[in-house]
Structures are given as C-alpha cells and as structure tokens.
Specification:
Layout lengths: L10 H11 L7 H4 L3 H20 L3 H24 L5 H14 L2 H4 L5 H6 L2 H14 L17 H14 L7 H23 L4 H22 L3 H24 L10 H17 L1
Length: 276
C-alpha cells in the first residue's frame, strides 16, 4: 500500500510515477508496451475533455481533466527520454523560451504592444522560427503546416485563415453566404441524382463542400465552429432529455410516443429555455 502523504504531490512526483510505470522490469505491462502512436489518441481525447469541462463551467472537473492532460505530456516526455531524444525539462524550457520570444512587447519592449495587437507580429515571429529550424530547406505550401490530425471543422478554418493571409478570401460575409446557398443547391442536385441511380460519393462530396463553406461562414462571423457545434450538441441533449422526462412522468419512453408528440414536447422544452 502506498504511503499516505500529508502534503501535496509535486510535478517531480508525477514524473517519478510515470518513470516507474514505464519500468521494463517492475512497471505496468500496459504502460510499458505503449508508444507515441498508441498514446496520441488519448492525448487528443483528454484535450477534448478539458474543453468539455470548460464548456460546462465545471471547475472541479477542469482540475481533474487538466491533470489528465498533463499526464499525457509527461507520458510522451518519458518515452522520449527512454529514446534519448529529450527530457521533460527540455519541453518546459522550449515552451518557456517560445512564449518569451513571441511576446517581445511584454518581455523586451513595451512600446511594441500596439504593433502586436494591430499587425501579424506573432505570425512573423513564428515564420522566423520555422526558417531557423528549416535552414536552407525551400518553403512549401502555405497550407502545408496545418496539422492533419485536427478536428475537420477546426482544420477547415485554419486552412481558410492561411489562404486568406495571401489574399485568397472573400471580401465580406455576403458572398460566403451566397456560396453556402450554391452548395445547398448542389447537394440537393446530388441527392436527386442518387435517387435516379447516381453515386453516394457525389452526395458525400457535396455535403463536405457545404460543411467547408459553413466553416468559412463561422470564420467570417468570428465564431469557433467546433464550440458552436458543441453547444448545439449540448442543447440537443438537454431538450431530448426533457422529452424523456416528460414521457417518463406518463410511464412511457420515446419509442412509445409518436413523432408528433415528441416534437410538441421538444417545442415545449424550447419555449421553457427561452423563458428562462
């Protein structure tokens, strides 16, 4: 049994725990066999759970989820240490140096504050960093460094932002909305074509085009589409649970009700939310 500690554990304790878990002789068999590739999905999942706790304003939950996310960083750093690549301390050093370097208006010259807020100073510093790392390597596409592993909506916005920086962008929201209407029409046409024997792939392609344009609409509106969709998901869950509760009070379940009945209960839940 582990010894009870009256004081709080430290980051050094966490690093020691991870090293012990990864010990080939006395560690956990599951942890020992993991790799960067097998742990990466958990890292992404933990980041989403942090975002979920924030969306629910659950600060107690946020504390736990941040711990889970920190564990992912420690996990990757431990595996890198075993490969003699880098240590956790190197991760801390690198991000600290990066934050200082990218905020010259805070750590070097306060007079650059306005420049930071009104120009692309952050991006220029990032570009300089990449040039330093890349040496004489020729630059690739402006879109090449947008990570493939991002959620699709988030990646769409980042791709659009990169393209906009070199002038490939609609000048205002109006033509983007027109493009959305155009894509809806093309989706309808693809659906009609499928009914006449056309391929499902055409429907999927047009739907993808529509989603991409809607991400662009969100960008022009200054709305995070991932956050907006998470909020819509939460709203759907909340209202559907209201349907289940109302039917449960009658001793019924959703499968016992008609669509019309459930739709009426949905509208009632919607009205109740609006009235506060």
């Amino acid at each position: 049994m582990a010894e009870e500690r009256p004081d709080k554990h430290t980051l050094d304790d966490l690093l020691a725990v991870m090293a012990r878990l990864r010990d080939p002789e006395s560690g956990c068999p599951w942890d020992v066999k993991q790799s960067f590739a097998t742990i990466a999905p958990y890292t992404i999942e933990e980041a989403y759970e942090v975002a979920d706790a924030i969306a629910r304003a659950d600060l107690d939950g946020l504390k736990d989820e941040l711990g889970d996310l920190l564990l992912q960083v420690v996990y990757h750093a431990q595996m890198a240490s075993e490969a003699s690549s880098f240590q956790f301390a190197d991760v801390v050093d690198a991000i600290t140096r990066k934050m200082i370097r990218r905020h010259p208006h805070v750590f070097e010259d306060a007079s650059r504050r306005e420049e930071f807020m009104s120009t692309d100073l952050w991006d220029r510093i990032k570009t300089e960093e990449k040039a330093e790392r890349g040496g004489d390597v020729a630059p690739g596409s402006v879109l090449g460094e947008v990570p493939l592993g991002l959620p699709a909506l988030t990646r769409a916005v980042k791709l659009q932002k990169r393209a906009a920086k070199v002038g490939f962008d609609w000048p205002s929201l109006a033509p983007v909305l027109e493009k959305a209407e155009e894509e809806i029409a093309e989706l309808k046409a693809a659906i009609s074509d499928r009914k006449s024997g056309g391929a499902q792939a055409g429907v999927a392609e047009e739907l993808g085009d529509l989603l991409f344009v809607m991400a662009n609409v969100a960008r022009h509106l200054g709305v995070d589409p991932e956050a907006a969709l998470r909020a819509a998901n939460a709203k759907f869950v909340r209202r559907f649970e209201s349907i289940e509760t109302a039917l449960g009070e009658e001793g019924r379940q959703p499968e016992d009700a008609t669509l019309e009945e459930m739709d009426a209960l949905w509208d009632a839940a919607k009205d109740a939310e609006r009235k506060g």
